[in-house]
Write a structure and sequence with these properties.
The chain is mostly helical. The chain has helices at residues 2-22, 33-47, 54-81, 88-125. Helix 1 packs antiparallel against helix 4 and helix 2 runs antiparallel to helix 3.
Length: 126
Amino acid sequence: MSMLAIVFGLALTVLGGGLYGMSPEPRSPTALIPSAFGIALILCGVIARNEKVRMHAMHFAALIGLVGAVYPAYRAFSAMAGGRSVDLAVGGQLAMAGLCAVFVVLCVKSFIDARRVRKAREAAQA
């Protein structure tokens, strides 16, 4: 699971760098917001390689993913509802929201699977 956080973190980091590179002059540092979320996910993934803190690191990564899915989606849909067309900024928000939403879904699936394995182990020992 930690590798999943690293992979999605890298994807978000590349997305932010690409948005920043494609944005018109003067470049806005807000285009790098996906990169900030990506770096946070990468750090969580690296920290989660330690067995003692894995659960906490991955739950924090899921929280980062949830915020990274909800807030950009809200901003993008609000802009489109206000009559704005899908430009680079709105497209970037939708891309970030989509990547983060997929990450959160995979996290939840992993958490459910881990709980099932833990309960099966406990039942086998009882």
